[in-house]
Amino acid sequence: MSDTLAVNEIYLSLQGESTFAGLPCVFVRLTACNLRCSYCDTAYAFTEGTKRTLAEVRSEVQRLAEPFAKPPNEPTPDPSQEGNYPAAHGFQFPSPGGVRGGFPRLPLVELTGGEPLLQSNSLPLMKQLCDDGFAVLVETSGALDISPVDPRVRRIMDLKCPSSGEVARNRWENLAHLNTTDEIKFVIGTVEDYEWSKQQIARHKLETICPLLFSWVHPLAPGQQDKSLKKVPAGQTPVTRRELAERIIADRLPVRFQAQLHKIIWPPEQRGV
User: CA triplet 79, 26, 180: central angle to 5 degrees?
Assistant: First the structure.
């Protein structure tokens, strides 16, 4: 079928990363990835999944989002009186890109993987979700062209660091397509990753493009190990979460340190969170 996607899972949880961390989010995890980063914690999405139509995926997202449409015990808002329902009440009127008054309609919707952009039908799905009024995020490795993504989508794009084993796969042409609403993520597990990331920020003046994220590599649980993952190159020096935070402070980097909230709240290997 031409309007299908290979979907690994769809679930409601909290956004664990990015500048939206902590907000309710519906995750659409797609199957397949063309990279094998050393720290990948979702290797199960390389092959596991089922074919679902775009209509089925969209319907499931709307089902999970429905309870957020109106707070309990409040009357149904009148769109003509939009100004009477501030964001603090929890109700967000749908608008292009899912943003009203600088605050997103909840829940967010994120396409992740795997690598969502490997499947061309992820593009019309993101457009349809934006048309539905959702704030849509996409997590992408940075190895594929991001320019076809609907401009209303917030693109959270990796720049793969040396310890990933995939640094050669960075598509540097993508930098020219990033907007101020996008985000660049560096996943950092070693001192070498940190120094490399500093160099890229300075060389490309990345802080002038969009928010920058430094995400510490959470060690993989035994059940997350996968034989297909690349090995960390020999000779690199692991960096702890605290050391990473202290280096950012000492060097006064214009970045946001982030930990993966879902791995702090739930067991690191738990799915559907």
Answer: 75
Q: Is residue 81 part of a domain?
A: no
Number of structural domains (the chain) is: 1
Tell me, what CATH number does 99's domain have?
A: 3.20.20.70
Q: For residue 79, is it within any domain?
A: no
pLDDT digits (tens, 9 = 90+) for 89-104: 333 434 445 654 467 8
Per-residue pLDDT tens digits for 119-153: 999 999 999 999 999 999 999 999 999 999 999 99
Which residues does 21 contact at the CB level (< 8 Å), separation at least 6? 14, 15, 258, 261
Identify which of 233, 178, 190, 183 has the alpha carbon closest to the alpha carbon of residue 213. Answer: 183
Q: Is 8 strand, coil or helix?
A: strand
Structural domain boundaries, residue 258: 4-69+89-265
- What is the pTM assigned to this prediction? 0.87
Give a yes or no: residue 254 inside a domain: yes
Question: Sign of torsion, CA 9 122 35 160?
Answer: negative
> Quick check: is 119 in a domain?
yes
Under 8 Å between Cβ of 255 and 213: yes
- Residue 135: helix, strand or coil by DSSP? coil
